[in-house]
Automatic annotation (TrEMBL):
This is Uncharacterized protein. Pfam families: Bestrophin_2. It comes from Chlorella vulgaris. Keywords: Cell membrane, Ion transport, Membrane, Transmembrane, Transmembrane helix, Transport. PANTHER family: UPF0187 PROTEIN YNEE, VOLTAGE-DEPENDENT ANION CHANNEL-FORMING PROTEIN YNEE. Residues 123-133 have a biased composition (Basic and acidic residues). Residues 35-133 are annotated as: Disordered. GO terms for cellular component: plasma membrane. It comes from the Eukaryota.
Length: 506
């Protein structure tokens, strides 16, 4: 049975120590993936069996899955010949037995090792350059962006651009292919090479004319789909900025003065939510450092202990709103006016529920933003499109020098390299913006949220009628001043009317 074969393969890898092999029958031949793993694993496993520390950094099956040892009672272990007692199964054997019993394939040590090596990979030039794309435009940036001098400026910076450096490897490959074809054909045409060697060229360009249309469709779809993902991410963070402002405005309006500590706490946790979401979506974020900018020490530790940090911050904000003493006072208008217009007079309980519902809608929108960002991060464009586009371009660009030789000669070498750069650059743009969170200026958005919330709370959180000459007055103070001026004007008009009537009577 295949499951039993995999089980014995895993047992042979893990029970490499001689003292453990006494309970195991001779294993069957190992598959190729297990043989590769066995070349890495036995020295480390024997060292651990002897009580010595293994080599650091060696990725084996034990590092991929290491639950506590479980004794088998359903025949997963081998019975002793005399007493019928069963030895304890190693942790890895328990994992393999559990997956086999569930009908799943056990973890492959070779695959786990290769995945780990791939995860540590990446191209430093391309990955480091992503942080320099987190630009925020101002008026001067837009003037420079649409300036006619951009053509010469961009052409001058092409050689040292991050795009060229990121595509250096494939560009060198296509340059080498075109150079080799040019040298080969030159040697054949000049008679230096033996006459039996053929000239490498394609006189019929029909296949390239047919396939170029399909290649352009693939590139257009790739870039459009990637841009749609980038735009969705930017819209989500723009909505987060708006919702953060809105819920702060609502809290400033409806929280009573006695809930000033809750208002201050709300402003801190709104800013903390955006920063925790930013670190949640990036691999290079320092969450503790970001949280210390807005939260207190015990609040930072509480977030760090949570498994899902943004969810925890959002739940704290929800508890703050639920703990506030939302107004359940008199209606918005006197009873007679309420009778005239039912929209003005609301029952106290209804008004309080309406306020809470409006604030809860903002919290629900923030949760939807979290889900949108996680969907974009965890679900790429179907990998078949990326793979097929890359294979299509590699084959197409590799054969391109063969078709250019008859008409261009040695000029096919630079032409092939230029065409390769143009087409690979389009595909590279699509791949680079497919995961937008590492290139969007999320730090700037988080700073804007924190600054706006802090300004709202510092200016409009107190209503004492006094403010600094360099600081805008509170919104409620402006409203109260206007109401007072209107009342004074009305009183003056009434007094003037009474005085005018008395004089006429006399």
């Amino acid at each position: 049975m295949p499951a039993f074969h995999r089980l014995q393969c895993a047992l042979h890898v893990q029970l490499a120590a001689p003292k453990l092999l006494t309970h195991v029958s001779p294993p069957p031949p190992l598959c190729l993936a297990h043989k590769r793993t066995q070349r890495r694993a036995p020295c480390n496993l024997r060292a651990r069996a002897a009580g010595k520390p293994g080599k650091e950094g060696t990725r084996t099956l034990e590092s991929a899955a290491s639950p506590p040892a479980v004794s088998s009672s359903n025949g997963s272990g081998h019975d002793a010949a005399a007493g019928g007692s069963k030895p304890h199964a190693p942790p890895q054997q328990a994992v393999v037995s559990a997956t086999a019993a569930a009908g799943q394939a056990p973890p492959s040590p070779g695959r786990a090792y290769r995945d780990g090596q791939a995860g540590r990979g990446g191209e430093p030039v391309k990955e480091e350059s992503r942080k320099y794309r987190r630009t925020v435009y101002d008026h001067e940036s837009w003037r420079q962006h649409r300036s006619t001098s951009r053509y010469l400026r961009h052409a001058k910076g092409m050689v040292g651009s991050r795009m060229v450096r990121g595509l250096a490897s494939p560009l060198l490959y296509f340059f080498a292919i075109s150079m080799a074809i040019a040298i080969w054909n030159t040697l054949v045409e000049t008679g230096v090479a033996p006459k039996l060697l053929p000239e490498l060229h394609m006189s019929n360009n029909g296949p390239f004319g047919i396939t170029s249309f399909a290649l352009s469709l693939l590139l257009v779809f790739r870039t459009n789909a990637s841009y749609a993902r980038w735009l969705d991410a930017r819209r989500a963070w723009g909505l987060l900025l708006n919702r953060s402002r809105d819920i702060t405005r609502q809290a400033l309006t409806y929280f009573p003065p006695a809930d000033r500590p809750l208002l201050d706490m709300l402003s801190r946790w709104i800013a903390a939510y955006s920063r925790s979401l930013m670190c949640h979506l990036r691999s290079d974020g320092d969450l503790e450092l970001e949280l210390r900018k807005v939260l207190r020490e015990h609040e930072v530790q509480a977030v760090l202990l949570a498994q899902h940090k943004p969810n925890y911050c959002l739940q704290v904000v929800s508890e703050i709103v639920g703990s506030a003493h939302l107004p359940v006072l008199a209606p918005l208008a006197p009873p007679d006016a309420a009778a005239a217009d039912g929209r003005l007079g609301l029952l106290p309980a209804v008004r309080s529920a309406a306020i809470y519902n409006r604030m809860d809608e903002n919290l629900t929108a923030m949760e939807d933003i979290l889900g949108t960002c996680e969907r974009i991060l965890k679900a790429p464009i179907p990998l078949s499109y990326t793979r097929h586009t890359s294979r299509f371009m590699m084959i197409w660009l590799t054969l391109l020098p063969f078709t250019l030789w008859d008409s261009c000669g040695w000029a096919s070498v630079p032409l092939s390299s230029i065409v390769a750069f143009l087409l690979l650059g389009i595909e590279e743009i699509g791949v680079s913006i497919e995961e937008p969170f590492s290139i969007l200026p999320l730090e700037s958005i988080c700073d804007t949220i924190q600054g706006n919330v802090k300004e709202l709370c510092s200016v409009h959180g107190t209503h004492n009628g006094s403010h600094s000459p360099l600081q805008a007055p509170a919104a409620r103070d402006v409203v109260l001043l206007a109401v007072a001026e209107a009342e004074q004007a009305a009183a003056a008009a009434a007094a003037a009317t009474v005085g005018g009537g008395g004089a006429t009577a006399v």
